[in-house]
């Protein structure tokens, strides 16, 4: 049999920072996919754009979360001086490998599921209706339903008072943004937010709200989390808040924007609300909040025909994978009926999202209530955050008139 030698990885200069980066995102992905499906950028980071390669990155044990030096920095292209942020994220399951990772993950998953089981759909619906309110000609969607529902829900599940959600939200946003850029300056600037959140949760974990019967901490420590270190618990709560807040906010905002730009699909969903489940999976594929995920190679290996040396940072552009024509027919078409839909928006493998059921439930309810309460939704104005890891709106103003008839 003829053995093909691995291909050399081409170099492509990347710039993820431009104001219009998110506007031209999917054209850029398509171009990379066509010409340089695997490339190395000017920082030596290897990027993957194909579905097969990204799926392999997330599920193959030859890739890990930690760099050779044991650091948890997601983009170690700079030094490690961002102090508080680095020591906080070192305790996040997201940046852990086995053997610690499965222990921390199981503990938080169990506690989250137990708390979630106690949150009825009816409570979520009431909250969504209150946040939608009367609609209007120029509704700031981010400071209403999209931003507040996920924050209130995750705060409720952890047991944090709803009144604190408004302080925690901006801190969570600062942490998520710093991690997105991976730049030393941004990481340093986010250090005060990391300290504030760490201090907040240090006080929270000893409070009656956390420790009372049925409280999050009680659930955590009575189950698989009985031997977690104090810092893993405190920073694990910080992470849960960051993970559960930003992503779900972005999913509902991005989804409504995509539906408003595809009014025939919005009408389809109004006419056939039973397709909500497949609709949300498709919205995750089409305009998912998380765009890239990274891992380190633990050994020299070949992926998709390319040789990648040990100790290389490899980034899977899952937003590109979710539009890969080799995996999805008409990938740039929003098709709410699409099935099967093997998107990677929640990741894959050992770190796949533990908040998936919650995210699907709260986004489903939010969209369903929104479509019941409004007529044709139109975009008045929108602006993206110039951001590479998250597809995130900086502003979204919608025209949300009342429904025109008895039917939605
Ligand atoms: C639309 C909403 C969401 C999206 C698109 C999303 C996406 C993701 C993705 C892609 C990962 C994998 C990261 C990786 O492999 O490096 C992940 C992990 C995670 N997500 Fe989510 N997520 C969402 C909502 C949530 C919510 C609501 C929660 C919590 C309540 C949550 C908690 C987590 C946690 C704890 C992890 C880390 C799992 C681990 O490292 O083992 N997520 N999420």
Features:
binds protoporphyrin IX containing FE, three-stranded antiparallel beta sheet, 11% strand, 408 residues, alpha+beta, five-stranded mixed beta sheet, globular, Cytochrome p450
Structural features, described:
- The protein is built from 15 helices and 10 strands.
- It is an alpha+beta fold and 408 residues long.
- It has one domain (25-133, 143-245, 270-362): Orthogonal Bundle (Cytochrome p450).
- Helix 3 packs across helix 8.
- The longest helix has 32 residues, at 230-261.
- 45% of the residues are buried.
- The structure holds protoporphyrin IX containing FE.
In short:
With 408 residues, the chain is of the alpha+beta class. The protein is built from 15 helices and ten strands.
CATH topology: Cytochrome p450
Based on the structure given, which CATH architecture is correct?
Orthogonal Bundle
The outline comes out as globular
Count of discrete structural domains: 1
User: What is the class in the CATH system?
Assistant: Mainly Alpha
Listing every helix as H and every strand as E from the N terminus to the C terminus, the arrangement reads HEEHEHHHEHHHHHHHHEEEEHHEE
Give the neighbour order of strands across the main sheet: 1-2-8-5-3
CATH superfamily: Cytochrome P450
Give the amount of beta strand, in percent: 5-15%
Number of helices: 15
User: Which cofactor or ligand species appear?
Assistant: protoporphyrin IX containing FE
Structural class: alpha+beta
- Provide the low-confidence segments as ranges: 75-80
């Amino acid at each position: 049999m003829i053995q093909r030698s691995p291909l050399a990885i081409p170099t492509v200069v990347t710039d993820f920072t431009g104001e219009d980066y998110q506007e031209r995102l999917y054209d850029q992905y398509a171009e990379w996919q066509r010409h340089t499906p695997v490339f190395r950028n000017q920082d030596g980071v290897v990027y993957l754009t194909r579905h097969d390669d990204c799926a392999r990155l997330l599920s193959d044990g030859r890739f890990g979360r930690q760099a050779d030096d044991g650091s948890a920095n997601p983009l170690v292209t700079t030094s490690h001086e961002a102090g508080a942020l680095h020591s906080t994220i070192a305790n996040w399951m997201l940046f852990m490998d086995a053997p610690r990772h499965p222990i921390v993950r199981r503990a938080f998953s169990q506690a989250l599921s137990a708390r979630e089981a106690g949150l009825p759909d009816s409570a979520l619906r009431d909250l969504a209706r209150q946040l939608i309110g009367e609609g209007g000609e120029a509704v700031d969607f981010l400071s209403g339903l999209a931003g507040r529902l996920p924050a209130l829900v995750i705060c409720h599940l952890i047991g944090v008072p709803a009144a604190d959600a408004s302080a925690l939200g901006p801190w969570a946003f600062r942490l998520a943004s710093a991690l997105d850029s991976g730049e030393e300056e941004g990481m340093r600037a986010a250090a005060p937010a990391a300290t504030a959140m760490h201090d907040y949760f240090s006080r929270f974990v000893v409070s009656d709200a956390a420790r009372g019967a049925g409280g999050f901490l009680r659930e955590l420590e009575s189950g698989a989390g009985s031997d977690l270190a104090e810092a893993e618990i405190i920073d694990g709560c910080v992470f849960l808040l960051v993970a559960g807040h930003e992503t779900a906010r972005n999913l509902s905002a991005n989804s409504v924007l995509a539906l408003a730009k595809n009014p025939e699909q919005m009408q389809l969903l109004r006419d056939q609300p039973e397709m909500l489940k497949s609709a949300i999976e498709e919205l995750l594929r089409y305009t998912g909040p998380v765009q890239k995920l990274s891992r380190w190679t633990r050994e020299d290996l070949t992926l998709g025909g390319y040789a990648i040396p040990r100790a290389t940072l490899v980034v899977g552009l899952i937003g590109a994978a979710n539009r890969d024509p080799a995996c999805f027919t008409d990938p740039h078409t929003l098709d709410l009926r699409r099935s099967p839909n093997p998107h990677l928006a929640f990741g894959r493998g050992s770190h796949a999202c533990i908040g998936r059921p919650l995210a699907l439930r709260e986004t489903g309810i939010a969209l369903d209530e929104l479509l019941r309460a409004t007529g044709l939704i139109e975009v008045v104005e929108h602006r993206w955050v110039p951001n590479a890891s998250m597809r995130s709106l900086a502003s979204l103003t919608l025209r949300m008139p009342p429904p025109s008839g008895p039917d939605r």
